[in-house]
Design brief:
CATH topology of one domain: Rossmann fold
CATH class of one domain: Alpha Beta
Distance between the termini: 33 Å
Number of helices: 10
Largest sheet: 7 strands, parallel
Oligomer: single chain
């Protein structure tokens, strides 16, 4: 089976690439792999016909502060997906297409056990771009009779993680991390290494799936696991955090924290992956168990 993997140099892409050793994998990246393209600017020209497409490339891990930065989410995540689909029509249609999406499409700051039937209400540039890309992929697959799979992922965990988790690890290791309000807010997350085997199982089946570790650890549990119970015990009372957030509101974009960020950090936000467990025997490892023996 020939597999095209976009974004193989990314955090999740690396896990997928290392797992698909029994397949003939072709990589599409900006600067490495078999095909060098910036999907937002170019329609690739492929020399091979692929059986399976895993579209992992995309823009994430940043909060846009300008219109140009917001536009970049659309260009990379939506236009880039459209250009990939156009290229595949010319080369030959695959049998299966797996699109890596995000739980950000639900547009929620808080909630518990959100399943795949929840409406897509994202208002931020990243979430909107993922919604648009999902729609493009679904229509294209339906029009061309390609088995379509969409994986909506929460926070990804693994060595050298990007984004907020990477910043948290750095703060813990340097000794200046603190929890807010006791760190009791639960968040869904999943190990990057568990995603790739699931792709192999689901690609021929299709469907939309949330994937989590099923435990949804809180910030206190996570910080203690990362520090191996040596750090991460400092706590900032919620009342003080709320005051700091209000000051941040007044300072604007220059402030490292505001009321919205305080609310995010102190609110539960968990997602239901029962569909994957029931239909495809999804049995991921607990993030906390992983962190007991591994360091990020």
């Amino acid at each position: 089976m020939k597999v095209l993997l976009t974004g193989s140099s990314g955090f999740l892409g690396g896990f997928i690439k290392s797992s698909f050793v029994d397949y003939e994998v072709f990589e599409l990246n900006r600067n490495s792999g078999n095909y060098h393209y910036s999907l937002e600017n170019e329609i690739p020209q492929f020399e091979h016909h692929f059986d399976l497409i895993i579209h992992s490339a995309g823009k994430a891990h940043s909060v846009p502060k300008t219109q140009i930065e917001k536009q970049a989410f659309y260009d990379i995540n939506v236009k880039g997906t459209a250009n990939l689909l156009e290229a595949l029509k010319k080369t030959g249609l695959p049998n299966q297409f797996v699109f890596i999406s995000s739980v950000s499409v639900y547009g929620l700051e808080e909630g518990k056990n959100i399943d795949e039937s929840y409406p897509l209400l994202a208002k931020d540039a990243y979430g909107i771009s993922k919604i648009e890309a999902e729609k493009l992929v679904q229509k294209w697959c339906n029009d061309n009779q390609v088995v379509c799979t969409i994986l909506r992922l929460p926070l990804l965990v693994g060595k050298n993680p990007p984004g907020n988790l990477g910043a948290m690890v750095k703060a813990i290791n340097k000794g200046y991390y603190f929890n807010i309000g006791g760190g009791t807010a639960k968040k869904s997350m999943v190990l990057g290494k568990d995603i790739a085997p699931f792709i192999s199982a689901v690609a021929s089946v299709g469907g939309i799936y949330n994937l989590t570790d099923g435990v949804h650890p809180n910030f206190k549990e996570l910080s203690l696991a990362i520090s191996k119970n040596k750090k991460g015990k400092v706590n900032l009372p919620l009342s003080i955090a709320i005051m700091v957030g209000k000051i941040g509101d007044l300072l604007g974009d220059k402030a490292p924290i505001n009321s919205l960020k305080v609310k995010k950090i102190t609110s539960d936000l968990t997602f239901d992956d029962a569909k994957a467990r029931e239909l495809l025997n999804w049995k991921p490892e607990s993030v906390l168990n992983y962190l007991k023996t591994e360091s990020l």
